[in-house]
Amino acid sequence: MQKWRSALLSLLLMLGLASCVTEINLPPGGYDQLDWIVLSSDYHLTASASHPVSELPFLDLPAGAEVQVVGADTNYAWLLVLHEDLLGWMPSFISKTGVGRLAPPVIIEPLPGCTTFLGATFDPAETWQSLSRGSAIIQGAIYRPWADIAFDEAWLEVKIDGAGEAVAADFIHVQLTPTSNLILFTFAIEGLRQGSEIFFFVDDSSGEPVSFQAAFFADKCDDEWTGEFEDQMPVGELKDTFPTPTSTPTPERGDEPLPPTTPQPVPTIRVTSGPRQIGPTREEIQALVDLWDVIHHEVDYTLDPTDLPLVLTGGALRQQEQTLRNLRAGNCYWIFENLAPSEMTGWQVISDNEVIVTMRKHWDGRLYCNGRLDRRSSFNEPFEVRYQIIRTSQGWRIAEKVPLDYQTRAPGATSTPRPAPMPESGNQQVCSGVYPTRLRVNGQAFLDGDRRNNVRSGAGTNNRLVGQIQPGETVTILDGPRCAESMVWWYVRSSQGVVGWTSEGASNEYWLAPLGSSASPPAAQTPTQNSQDQLRSSLLAKSRNSSVSVSYQNETTRFADALVYRLHEFQLSREGITEQAMTNAISRADAGDRMNGVVQTVWSDWLSNLSSSRLDPYQTDPGTRGMSPFRQLIVRMIQGRQGNLTAAQQRALYSLFTRPENPSVWHSNVNGVIGAINREYF
Of 614, 608, 532, which Cα lies nearest the Cα of 568? Predict the structure, then answer.
């Protein structure tokens, strides 16, 4: 059997396109839409159906992720799927979708057992280095999400630096949909030596955006390649015919004719419709909150935050971690008894990726400090909590949790009436005989003057101290007002992530002032061009004076410019991430340490990523090089290629400058911070 016909000619599918294409069953113009499937469990996509351990970098998918089906092996045990313009294989049994109804456009025959997966690249110029000698098979693909006719003149060339030569190759086109196209290619390489380097060159003058992948397999099969070959192919030139397998003839019995060969019918694909994301259900949100209750009750006793990321993210995670730090500092812990299941009393779907729920809870909570029961903080009354729950790459997580009314009593008991909601404008008398409030729920305020404000677990100075608000710092009003000790109290989240109750003032003196009022100091106003320049200069001065050294001063300046001049894009007011909050964040004394640490680490790694490819670090898109989302964001801001910030990117940048970290991490463990930000916000 000729290898050319059995393995190459049929073109192996990318990234482990571990197989020979044996059927192309596409209607003219492709399908209207590829079929979507949902994963029932976590899985790391692989390069080949023949090599299940050939995990591909950057293709780790959580349960609930959606992918598009492009192909399958001959018995449908494995599916070739498309995820964010990259291809990989997954077992069919981890699909929530019935595989029996799927009819992928490409059916692929697995590679023989005499091959071994060696690695993969995701950019034509990315170098793959051989660690062994002999023959290799390269299977790859060029995915064209928005195919342009100008690509017709494109050529693909394989380049080998060192011993080795390409001796055979072929390619086919698969028009997946009316707008998307897939080119599957394969090369046979002979005479490789240890240290030989292989990379590719796509000669394409159209500028069409494409996604490239190539998987490398050691070839230990005995077959010989036939024919001569140039190391380049006109991949833009459409091929109208596709190889199909020939059926094995039935052995002749006397003069009995061979049975006729019936061509396999073209399957009809069932296209899913509607939104890609499936919105939250009450059952899965209830299960998440129930799991949080279990983890919460255990963690507040053990003070071990290990399981918190299983249910919390963003501000809720930071708030709970701070609570544990405060408990540990005070030698305190909680014990919860008489637990009742949380009861859902409010449900508001914001989008397919966000829901706001209110849960009624009832259990006995006893706080012990230094071995003694703290009766003032202990409770046994029902209460309500409002949760903001969002979809993350790891599934549903609680992003914000706001305790509501601790005065709710059992039926028949006397309850303290809550004040009426604040009007949109004007003052309201909350406490008799003291100042009228100037604040309102969902508004913002700043701490006026040069003194710090305490933030407590409840309204009143007898409640536990959970943090402080610094002079000039902004807060978002989450709930209130309450009257306690002749002071008006509000439940707030500060720009530094402190959440709790704080007083608006005392006697006739206001401590908190509405943001944007005439009392606001210049620093609390939206930055003008002059104030932006001052902020930029201040940030760069912190960088120059930082003990965290940076070798890339030009890149640090470019990052500071990109950050300061897009402050207006920080608009997550419900999370306290606003233009003013971000301004305050990068005005902190340690902002230079944080900026230097992340720029030094990310840009150094970026240059190392490109070191063997001779690509321009300012023109190459980091998304094509397999970098994590947060690293991509940093590189693109330095390049000046970053578009408008998404909500996740706003959260990530805000976290970079505000997250509670030991100062030593900016010297020694920036990668740990980057990893944490990626897990929390992407």
Answer: 532
